[in-house]
Structure formats: C-alpha cells, structure tokens
Amino acid sequence: MEIYEFKLVKQVDFSEADPAGILHFSNYFRYMELVEHAFYRKLGISGFMQKKKQNYGWPRVHAKMDYLAPLAYEDQVEIHLLVAEKHKKAMDYLFYFRRLPDRKLVAKGHLTVVYVSVDPQTRKLKASKIPDEITRSIVVAPKKLLELEE
C-alpha cells in the first residue's frame, strides 16, 4: 500500500479557543501533529518508539503556518496532510485546513520532520536513514494536489 495523504476531521473545542471564541493560532500546530501521528498509525508505525533495541522519533526541524480565515469554537475542520517531499532522512508535509461544510480553505501549514534514532542511554538524537519498510509505503503526492490554490 502506497500512501501520500491522510485526512482527519476535528471540531474546535472550547479549551482551544481564545476569549473571543477563535481558535488560538498555536492549536493549528497541534492539529498538524494530530494528523501526522494518525498518518503514521495508518502506516502501522508510531510517531515515537521507545523499546530496548528500537528507539526512534520524528522531531520537527521546520514548521510554518499561513492563516487565511479564522476558525471558531465548535467549527468542524478537515485537516489534509500531503507528502510534499521525501528524502533519505526527512519528510516534508503540507497541510490544508478546510472549514466544513463549506470547505473554505482557512490555513495552510508545512512541517519538515527528520527521522532520528534515540540512544537509550544518553537520550541523544541522531538523524538516521528512514527504514525501507517505511519509505516503500510513502510516496510523494501528485503535483496537482501540492499546488492547490485557495
């Protein structure tokens, strides 16, 4: 199975909104992470693995968000993850946030994550080659999806 996208629908919770009832800007980054980890689960892997012989994770090295329109308390939003680039040790993901039911594009995000091994003794991270069993499952999204317009 080759995967290049994942979608998740989320309702804006009261605790995520500011006093005006608007989704706080920082929560868009939490939503990206929520979708990213659901994407990994669909692939049958974890976003963070800590076992005796296998310790790895996907820390962020770049994150960006463009805000186009607000989301408010109780709004439904579809977050669409697309694999934008695939490298030997890193992945780039694009995220499109669409308010439902009108599907208005309200934000666009970008994450660059690096696959790292974690030394179980020192907890130091080391960029590592993404395992073949993962890279075989993930492909770059079609160009027409990556160039989505507002």
UniProtKB/TrEMBL annotation:
Transmembrane segments: none
UniProt cross-references to Gene3D superfamilies, sorted A to Z: Hotdog Thioesterase
Keywords, sorted A to Z: Hydrolase
InterPro entries xrefs: 4-hydroxybenzoyl-CoA_TE, HotDog_dom_sf
Amino-acid biosynthesis among keywords: no
GO terms for MF: fatty acyl-CoA hydrolase activity
Domain of life assignment: Bacteria
Stated family: Belongs to the 4-hydroxybenzoyl-CoA thioesterase family.
Name by which UniProt lists this protein: Acyl-CoA thioesterase
Protein species of origin: Sulfidibacter corallicola
Lineage: Bacteria, Pseudomonadati, Acidobacteriota, Holophagae, Acanthopleuribacterales
